[in-house]
Amino acid sequence: MDFIDLKTQYLKFKPSIHEAIDRVLEHGRFIMGPEIDTLESTLAAYVGCRHAITVASGTDSLEIALRALEIGPGDEVVTVPFTWISTAEVIAQVGAKPVFVDIDPLDFNIAVEQIEAAITPATKALLPVSLFGQMPDYGAIHAIAAKHGLTVIEDAAQSFGATRHGVRSCNATRIASTSFYPAKPLGCYGEGGALFTNDDDLAVKMKAIRTHGGIRRHYHDLVGMNGRFDTLQAAIMLAKWPGFEAEVEARNRLGARYSEKLCDVCETPAIREGNTHVYAQYTIRVPDRDTLAEKLKALGIPTAVYYPKCLHEQPVFAPLGYSYGDFPEAESASREVISLPLNPYLSEREQDLVIAGVRQALG
Asked: What is the pTM of this model?
C-alpha cells in the first residue's frame, strides 16, 4: 500500500499526459510556453479570482508575495510554528522576522484570538496556513488585519480545492499561495506553485519578480528571481485537470469514512462550520503515535508525521528567542499527530485494512 498513490492517477491520465508532453516537445517553447497562460486562466477561473500566476515552487510563491508587498529588514510577519518550514523560511529570506502565534487544537490552524497580541508597530502582514486541507476563520483574521492596516496572505499549499462559506481557498485573501508539489491535492510531476490575487497592481509586480524583476526582456524594474513555472509541468497539470473535482470529492468521501469508523478510538479531524476539507493529509491524534506507527508498519500500512518538531524548536530559528513551552498547543500537536494513507485512488478495501489496523493497534 502506498501512502500517496501517484501511479494510479498517472495510469488513468497517461494518454492525455503523453499527448500534452508531446505537444510541448513539438512546439519547443519550454519556458513560458502557451500552456502557462492556459493553466493560469484555468486556475483563476476555478478559484474565482482575477489573476493566477504560476511559479517554480510553493516556497517561491510565498517569497514573491512578500517581495511584492515590499516586506524586508525591520519588518515582522505573524504566522504559526506548526507548519512546514517554508512558511517561516521565506520571511527570513526577505530579511524580515517571523513572529509565531499558537494554533487552535481543534483544526491545527492559527489561534485567531491570539493574533492581536503578536502585532507590533513592525508587523506588516499576517500569514496564516490552511493546514492539512481546510481554511481558518479568514473573516475574523481580516477584521484584525483591517484594524491594524495589515495584508493577509493565505498559505494554501495544502488546501487547494477547499472552501469556507462557499469561498474557495486562494480567493479569501489579498494574496494566496499554493504548491503543486506532487503529493498536494493538485500536483505536478516536479516542483511548482502559484499565486492568486484580485489586485491588478500586485499581479504585475509578482509577475515581474517571477521573471528577474521585469515584464519586458532586458528591462528590470525590481529585484526579482528566476521563479518561472515549467511549460512541461503546466502541460501535465492541464492533462490531469479534468479529474480534479472528482478527486476532491473522493478525498471528502474517504476522509469522512475514516472519521466515521475511527472517531471512537482516536481524535479525528474536526471540520469547522462552513468549511470543506480536501485532506491533503488525513491526520489523527493519539497519545503514543510512535507505537501506533510501528504497529501499522508491521501490518504493511505506511504513515507519516506532519510535523514532528515545531519551527521555534528548529536550530535555525533559535535567534528568535522562543523556548519550548511558548506554544503549548503546537508543541502538543507535534508530539501526537500522525497521518494515515489517503489519496483519491485509495480503495475502500485498502481503507478498511488501515481502519482495522488502527483499531487493532489502539484496542
From this structure: 0.96
